[in-house]
Design goal:
- Helix content is about 30%, strand content about 20%.
- The chain is α/β, with parallel strands linked by helices.
- A 6-stranded mixed β-sheet has the order 10-16-15-14-11-13. A 5-stranded mixed β-sheet has the order 19-27-26-21-22, with no helix packed on it. A 4-stranded mixed β-sheet has the order 8-7-5-17, with no helix packed on it.
């Protein structure tokens, strides 16, 4: 519907009718206004399957939903490092939503993985905002190509489950912009989501539902968002303040209390009616966008989508270790499948994204059809207790086979929406099982079903490790195909696996105290921290093996030097040097060489996933713009490119850089500098213009002789070197120079400061 017609509709509504649109009808529906021909529409939980509840609604997955298809969770989709994979998932879900008359699917979950402890990390994409933004953009564009809305969540800084409804995420401006807002920014600008869901928490003391700076100044005015903002379920704090801030819809509905508050605020003059009108227009514009594009002939073929779920998961499985090329396995080899998850895989997380799957594949049932396998359960995940009888059976089964594949990971009780993990360990019963099996079976392989990193105390004792993440209802058949070489694994880790919890950047302040969480690690999240500190990790960001090998060559940068406003093309050749077809994820990082600002040693700025046959070479091309070289400068409240040398790095992971070349970038913005009595000599000397002024006035004031006199006063010639004097002067405030220049009068210092400030 055209904006003008929407405005006419709103103009014809009563104050009470307009206020009614600001909250839901029930748990899943918006309100309609029958008199005005405004329909009620339904939203549904996602983001990796439909959790449509036709009867009793809830946001924790407690009540039944329709039989649907559970696709790989966000943790797995991001491991695909593939925009095509994310887009295919979005297209499938968009089509399913059309069949089920869902106007908006709630997702994707875009929050940064600040710590591996977050109980909801299985829904989130990455510790890296660029990867999260690119995967999210592909997903949102694809869903909305089917004329169904998305609601990227949870906007913003919702990085823990502990006290998620009351805690305040406290961070500086640069951290917010470079990490926590950046994941949403690229997606909003490039995909234009129909709606946004704000988070429960506060940002620097202000609830996100009533944070005008974030919801209006940044989201709408700066990024161009033109949809509506809804609360997370139960996130509303003060309804009128939230409406002023830019929060359109309170969910869930079912109560008219806050609608009445809005009406009264308008009558009392506390709320301008034009603010309410604008909110209604933003909401109805999206409601009618769906209604007028309803697709009556859409198809929800569950069997077909199940096969698609398997293919998606095959793109996302990460091969972490493959000693002696033990994988892929041979069908002729007798293999013991050990562990409950071989027969009943853990393939999704608990909470609002929990899907009522119509079917689930297990690796055991799949492999029984075409491989020589035997099975032992090994453990139960109902509680972390070692069942000695199960353990003995598993060890004997493994001993009598030619190889053992142990299916392990995290049970629902270890990670879920609503609470955070306490440690990075897997259940003790599983770790013990792996250790005991590895003692009797030298060809032991571990398959992991988990939504976040785990410690691996047994890593040196096993031959191979396969990370399946929470791979959706077809994870069993997907894993089987990878184990036996029907599929060459091509996933890469979208997060760092640390060696221990104590190594994580926010270890000392995760969770916070007194409902305040200080983000003291700043921009050094994930690999930005580990790589900058040269800290060893279990597996780095971007890591993943293949059944073939790849070689890189001919890194080319089209220009040696560019201006900030220019783009630059970068190409690199990649060759499959192995014996089978494979897919490689080419990762481009950028690092600043030197500079005045502390920055991560490298940051992911581009990536692509390519398929190569044996012996085939492809040239991968990337285009970088100024944002690839920029940091957020708090002095100007904007992105800033510092002039100087940058390194273009091509890597297999954040820790393995294969090729690199320098490029010089000339920044075009300036940071206004105001000098005071407390500005240091070093600050003045760092700016060429100010340096000339200081040197010129210094000659008039015989500053050079005074510095020499200072050196003599500190111990005589030869005791303090020129370098030491220079170091002392670099950090000396201008006011302190007077101590060594008795002839310098106060008015002369003020004259110098005025000259430096252009007065």
């Amino acid at each position: 519907m055209e904006i003008s017609k929407v405005k006419e509709l709103v103009a014809g509504m009563t104050l009470e009718e307009k206020a009614s649109l600001c909250s839901g009808l029930d748990f899943w529906h918006t309100k309609g206004v029958e008199r005005m021909g405004i329909p009620s529409v339904m939203v549904s939980d996602g983001p990796h399957g439909l959790r449509k509840q036709e009867k009793r609604g809830d946001h924790l997955g407690l009540n039944d939903s329709i039989k649907a298809v559970c696709f790989p969770a966000g943790c797995a989709i991001a491991a695909g490092f593939s925009r095509k994979t994310a887009a295919r998932l979005g297209e499938l879900l968009g089509e399913e939503c059309q069949v089920e008359n869902i106007s908006t699917i709630l997702g994707p979950a875009m929050n940064i993985k600040r710590s591996p402890l977050c109980g909801r990390n299985f829904e989130y994409y990455s510790e890296d905002p660029f990867l999260a933004a690119e995967i999210g953009t592909a997903y949102v564009n694809a869903v909305q190509s089917r004329n169904v809305g998305t609601s990227p969540k949870h906007f913003m800084a919702n990085n823990q489950e502990y006290h998620r409804m009351t805690s305040s995420s406290d961070m500086d401006e640069r951290t917010a912009r470079e990490i926590y807002l950046a994941a949403f920014e690229g997606m909003v600008k490039n995909a234009k989501p129909w709606t946004i869901m704000n988070s429960y928490n506060k940002l620097n003391g202000t609830y996100l539902c009533e944070n005008k700076e974030i919801l209006t100044d940044v989201l709408r005015k700066e990024w161009g968002f033109d949809g509506y903002v809804m609360t997370d379920w139960g996130a509303m704090n003060r309804r009128v303040e939230a409406l002023k801030a830019g929060c359109n819809l309170e969910m869930p509905g079912g109560s008219s209390v806050t609608d009445a508050q809005i009406v009264q605020a308008v009558k009392d003059g506390e709320l301008e009616e034009m603010v309410l009108d604008q909110s209604c227009e933003e909401l109805l514009h999206i409601v009618f966008r769906y209604v007028e594009n309803r697709k009556e002939d859409a198809l929800f073929d569950r069997e077909k989508d199940h096969e698609a779920a398997r293919e998606l998961e095959e793109e996302c499985i990460v091969l972490l270790k493959n000693e002696g090329d033990i994988l892929p396995l041979s069908k002729e080899k007798k293999v013991a499948l050990i562990g409950k998850y071989a027969a009943a895989p853990r393939y999704q997380g608990d909470g609002s994204s929990h899907i009522n799957s119509f079917r689930v594949d297990s690796a055991l049932e799949t492999l029984k059809e075409w491989a020589d396998v035997v099975y032992a359960q090994g453990y139960d995940d109902a509680e972390d207790v070692i069942d000695e009888a199960m353990l003995r059976e598993a060890v004997e089964t493994a001993r009598n086979a030619e190889a053992a594949v142990i299916f392990a990971g995290l049970p629902d009780s270890f990670e879920s929406e609503g609470y955070d993990r306490k440690h990075l360990r897997m259940p003790d019963c599983q770790n013990r099982l792996i250790e005991e099996v590895a003692k009797v079976q030298p060809n032991t392989i571990v398959v992991l079903h988990n939504g976040a990193p785990v410690e691996m105390p047994w890593i040196a004792e096993v031959k191979a490790v396969v990370e399946a993440y929470l791979g959706g209802q077809a994870v069993g058949s997907a894993v089987a195909n990878v184990l036996y070489g029907k599929v060459n694994p091509s996933g890469r880790l979208p997060e760092t696996f640390p060696l221990r919890l104590q190594d994580t950047p926010c270890y000392l302040n995760y969770g916070g105290e007194r409902d305040k969480v200080i983000y003291s690690e700043g921009v050094f999240v994930g690999y930005r921290y580990y790589e900058s500190r040269e800290m060893p990790v279990l597996f780095p960001f971007g890591y993943g093996l293949s059944y073939t090998t790849f070689a890189y060559s001919n890194l080319t940068i089209e220009k040696d030097s560019i201006q900030e406003s220019e783009t630059v093309k970068i190409t690199v050749d990649v060759t499959n040097t192995g014996t089978c077809m494979g897919k490689e994820v080419v990762q481009l990082y950028v690092g600043k060489k030197g500079g005045s600002i502390v920055r991560p040693i490298r940051e992911l700025r581009a990536f692509d996933k390519i398929e190569l046959n044996p012996g085939e070479t492809k040239t991968v091309e990337f285009t970088l713009d100024s944002r690839a070289f920029a940091y957020w400068e708090t002095e100007i409240h904007d992105w800033f490119v510092e002039s100087g040398a940058y390194e273009i790095q091509i890597g297999r992971s954040a820790s393995e850089i294969i090729l690199s070349k320098e490029i010089r970038v000339e920044g075009e913005k300036t940071i206004p500098k105001v000098y005071t009595r407390n500005s240091t000599v070093g600050e003045v000397m760092a700016d060429p213009k100010s340096r000339r002024i200081l040197e010129a006035m210094g000659k008039e004031m015989n500053m050079g002789e005074s510095i020499a006199a200072m050196a003599d006063s500190q111990g005589g010639a030869g005791v303090i070197s020129k370098e030491m004097v220079a170091a002392m002067m670099e950090g000396m405030p201008l006011r302190s120079v007077m101590m060594f220049m008795p002839g310098l009068k106060p008015e002369m210092l003020e004259q110098l400061i005025n000259a430096l400030n252009g007065k």
